[in-house]
Amino acid sequence: xxxxxxxxxxxxxxxxxxxxxxxxxxxxxxxxxxxxxxxxxxxxxxxxxxxxxxxxxxxxxxxxxxxxxxxxxxxxxxxxxxxxxxxxxxxxxxxxxxxxxxxxxxxxxxxxxxxxxxxxxxxxxxxxxxxxxxxxxxxxxxxxxxxxxxxxxxxxxxxxxxxxxxxxxxxxxxxxxxxxxxxxxxxxxxxxxxxxxxxxxxxxxxxxxxxxxxxxxxxxxxxxxxxxxxxxxxxxxxxxxxxxxxxxxxxxxxxxxxxxxxxxxxxxxxxxxxxxxx
Length: 278
Known about the structure:
By secondary structure, this protein is an alpha+beta fold. Helices cover 24% and strands 32% of the residues.
């Protein structure tokens, strides 16, 4: 099928999951040039391909079904471009399918699903923690970027569950890799104003040590708004920004104790709490 704007689905796995989003964009530019794909470029002194990623991957997280849109200077056969890119892609990056989309279309994410393998003996405790979080009216986390605040991420939680791989009731998205006996799934809404992060949820579920020990966190599902044909009216992302609260200076200092020392050294007689009065 011919088209001048193509939407690709791809996987980013293996050691390539350690590649930053910025480096991934440079890798895409090199692939496009080597594959002789007639891509559009941005204007300015440093032109680059007109690439739109639906949602950047956190560093170290594997992506099973990611999305990128590429604008072309002339209509091309979609399957041919797919084959060219796969021929130039490094190991760990695989383009799985392609579709022609209108030029005005935008890959707006709606929902994501993360999966993390966990030891089987921790499934029961993880399920209890998941149920507790889902029954809360508010789930607060501390965010330090881009602004310091407390954020209620409860509206972004669509579903949390841990399951054994052998459980017949477990859906395919809940099933971890074959070399692990159980996994936890984080089903999250994504809105224009934000979403919950997998790492902060794992801390709330007391599973951060599993991730720190080397377990592979993967994003298995990236659902786009314009690809959902008939959504259930009762199963929709939240509208509007999430509830926030100011973060106490003590919490900021506890999370970033190195900033206090740097600040004092840079400005003698001052701290994050204000000037020192003797």
